[in-house]
Amino acid sequence: MIEDTRIMIPFDEALSRAISMVQPLESEAVAVSDACGRVVVEPVYAQIDAPRVDIAAMDGYAVRLDEARTDQALKVVGEAFAGTPFTAALGEGQAVRIFTGAHVPAGADCIVMQEYAQRSGDTVTFEKGFGPARHIRKRGGDFAAGALMIERGTRLSPAAMIALAGADKADAVVARQPRVAIIVTGDELVAPGSAAAIANRQPDSASYGVAALAERYGATIVQIFRAEDDLATLEEIATQALSLADCVIVIGGASVGERDFAKPMFAGAELELAFSKVAIKPGKPVWFGTAGGRCVLGLPGNPGSALVTARLFAAPLLTALQGGDAWAEIQTVPLPLEVPLEPGGSREIFVRARLGKDGLKPVANQESGAQAPLAQSSWLIRRAAHAPAQVAGAMVRAIPL
Description:
Its cofactor is Mg(2+). One of its GO terms (molecular function) is metal ion binding. Pathway: Cofactor biosynthesis; molybdopterin biosynthesis. By secondary structure, the chain is α+β, with helices and mostly antiparallel strands. The protein is built from five helices and 26 strands. It has four domains: about 10-25 and about 175-330, Molybdenum Cofactor Biosythetic Enzyme, Chain A (3-Layer(aba) Sandwich), CATH 3.40.980; about 30-50 and about 140-175, Molybdopterin biosynthesis moea protein, domain 2, CATH 3.90.105; about 55-135, Molybdopterin biosynthesis moea protein, domain 3 (Molybdopterin biosynthesis moeA protein, domain 3, Beta Complex), CATH 2.170.190.11; about 335-400, Beta-clip. The chain is about 15% helix and about 30% strand. The strands form seven sheets. The chain has a six-stranded mixed sheet, with no helix packed on it. A six-stranded mixed sheet has the order 16-13-17-21-20-18, sandwiched between helices. The longest helix has 19 residues, at about 305-320.
């Protein structure tokens, strides 16, 4: 392991280096019921037309348009429901009572909405005002058999699940979920719920946020290790974590103090670093490399920094492991500021903020160790180094946190 701790590189360069070292995991087929949140590694094509036939878009009466006049009664010869069609052809002077989703009978070319119909026994007449829409969804109007429905590398959102199932697919070929092990270092850390009873201890909070974020981006957490700052102990944990996981995330021990062992614990696994310091705030000590053929991401120990750097690095890296578009995970969207922003500093800044009705408002406490403001933080405002002051209403670039 060779490291020059003086080198601090820009965020985009750091992420690019990390992504270049990631190899996508193997694929597997999963049932459509288990596919949400997974990344497809093969494009999804439609197996059928949608709709499969012309269908009614409204409740009403299927008729021939040239016969649907206010001065002419049509004979109602049957009914058509979704899944239970009227099987005969529509004859001259006839109408079929039809409901949304039902097959349009042969011979009909218009659905007159029921609001314009006057039914009397087995006849129906129509009032003025219907049309010009014919209220028929044409066969293949949504998509045709063979159409590309979902591109390779797409994470299946709830909306994409509708497209997947609508394509008549019983399963999907997706990337295997990355197995993630988390190592939390620090003599002072104990499990939540026990800190109050022990002097000089505080609850480990960062690992819970990082684990939840990793799961949001498709990972399975195989184990969370919590250890004191002892190199021999940490070396054993590092070996175990590498044997269990595709990606190991280390929280804490990222600085250069006498008891910061985040990187040294992987020396026996021939840690190859992509970078060890990034010109961002918060999160300058974040680092990434590979060890024993596994990805290793090191996050700062402060909870605010840990969560922000996990969002900026773990999210795209986990997506890359699944064959997805890593850069899409940090794509910014323009949003207005609710309040002014002061000029930026010498590093690129990711400002924790909440979104109100008038725009983004940074949370009051931006310290790396702040925990309470994270509950209100839903966005990161991305600001370049030496960014000028900005007034309320100005547009900024933001990433969902």
